[in-house]
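Dear support,

I submitted the protein below through the web form. The confirmation email said the job was done, but the results page showed an empty box. After a refresh the structure appeared. I'm attaching both so you can tell me whether what I see now is the final result or a partial one.
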Amino acid sequence: MARSPVAITMPVEDGLPVGWLTDLVVDAEQAGIDTALVGEVAGPEVFATLGAMAARTERIRLGSGIVAAYTRSPALTAMGFATLASLAPGRIVAGIGASSPIVVGRWHGGDFEQPLATVREFISLLRTALAGEKLNHDGPRFRSRGFRLDLPAVDVPVWLGAINPRMLAVAGEVADAVFMTWCPPSEVTPKRNIVEAAATDSGRDASDVATMLSFWAYAGPDPEQALERMRRQVLAYSMVPTHQPAFVGTFDNLPEVAEAWQKGDRARALSLVPDEAVLAQCALGPDMLAERIDAYRAAGVDLPIVLLTGAHVGDDVGPQATVDALSRMLAPERLTS
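What the results page shows now:
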């Protein structure tokens, strides 16, 4: 019997060339991986990167993970996804999210205000534009008059990145899938319950909203250094105000760590992050990777998404090794499908 699908997210924070990332997606397609996502932080630009990957592949689904609802207009975002959908019909996913005050405010000079309302308005306009309908909108966040996409793309599903309860509810209201992250298996069901309740309250069939979940993983040859890299990532993300609530259940000394961080003592904050808090959110080694994928599937996740990471910035061995580990896991499925 074929196993459920698995996806990957590219290591865009590792300083690796786009050509190498594209080669990795080609390998992932050959391995039977279902979907490859590209995030957008401060490295590769998402649409150019996905375009390169679409041109080199034939089957694998490709998407953003995520595009911020603040840094591009809905019209321009629709143009980007429509371009990709024209290049790779039926294979493109629009992963949308609010992002964070750091990315939106500090880096891009935007106002990270009213994220719930902003995301709702953005997704509504994005769907309208992708359907080829004219935009005549004068809203609290976005304005567009007379825009009509010349290249409609009606087959692009929208996944909404959501961590906290109110955004999970918005996903239930407006998205084709909720895209969770920083969520251990034990927390999937209560979060999914929020999504389903919101979908039902808005008149939707809750089963129409799929559950996708991304988690950091490393199955390469340097697990000790990778653990330290993951520790730094857990610390960094857990100190972001919009993300911090996601760590409360698995990070027992989070207040002590946050106090050291706020005082500017980064070294002490890092030293206080326990292995247990890291490994509750991340998977280290091929055995833990396989176990974590199975745990997420058992918890009701439709698509576990392995966020590839290197043991250090510039490491291309670790991400490749993790894709190779996934290939070995999927080998029986490829032989019987």
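Response: this is the final, complete result; the empty box was a page-load delay. The chain is about 45% helix and 15% strand.
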